[in-house]
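ugh ok fine here u go
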Amino acid sequence: MWKKVLFLLGCIVFLSVHIETFESYSNVRIPSTLIILGLFLLVVITRISTQRTIYMPNKRLLLGYYFLFGSIVFPALLNNEGVFLEHPELFYSRALYPFVLLVVVYMLVRNLQFESFLRWAFVLNLVLAVLSFFWNVVQGNPGRPENVLVVSDRVAFLGIAVFNISSRKIDKLVVSVVTCLTLAVYLSLTSFIIFAVVIYLNVFYTNLTQGSTKVRFLILFGLILLVVFSISFVNSVANQVVVINGNGRLVDSINTILYRLHSVLNRSDASQMARSLMKDEGTRILMKKPLTGEFLYEIKCFGDSGSYIHNVLSYWAEFGLLAFALILGFVISAMWKNYRIFSLYQDSLAGGLLFSSLYMLLIFLFSRSYAHDLLWICLGATVSYSDKFTTDGKN
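structure:
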């Protein structure tokens, strides 16, 4: 019984962004974080009533989670200039909720067939992303769908994982093409570029270690051509707006991406300029409070809970240096352990989580912030799987 509830809980975690999207369309506001918390407590109570414990055999991992929890929660609670009292829901969603995600994903990896679960999550995310896109079109909204960045990252993350665990080449091709098309339609330039780069590195590494000499040479030659073409293309787009002739929404989407790329490269894009102001304010906080940061400083500075640094430094500015270092340490350690499992045992799920983590790391280095939950989902999956693989192997 409890595994069925756990499966439902996992689906809601991976589909939470779509729940919020359709709620916004229907003017119903029930935070998905609260739904997840309620189901999480139900799963925990059911598990404890039947097994008396949530088994975590690696005590060092448990201690690490406790230490990470303390390094984030207590500074956020104590160092927020009184903003916490006005916005307790943000304290839960950005300081406490990550640990709900870590435990939920740990239980998913430990108790379900995680490969099968990832496939289901990928398909459901694609279906709901397409429905959201067409709903947006039907409503006559010319802009991008709601929550475009979170949806794009979720689809890309799952697409990379499913690409690796798929055994047939045709399945890999279908997954990569469908994911690329979804990201292109959603006009998520950063997600599209980083997904394409990670998939190429994935294929390159796999063939470098397993393929023939001829295949390795062709892929390396293709990589050189890709770099040369990319440099030439970026220079062309930076100097002038590139426009593709034709009609239809796909052509319009491509032209919108090209115009956005031109604006970003010339720093004339409104979003880019706004992010520059947020970065300057976040840098000021880092210079003023390098050790502790200031949780939710963006509300006091801008009056907006979304005006934080849009890259990995947001963790430092919000939670302080210790939490920032621990988060990076957890991510790098988990990636290294999955790399070892992948390279030594050719384990496809470890490879999928490794390259999904690479996507997550790159997207957070350049574009995403502490308010996005992808880092915690990815970290929970990579840490939990390497821990399960190691402990099961020892047993």
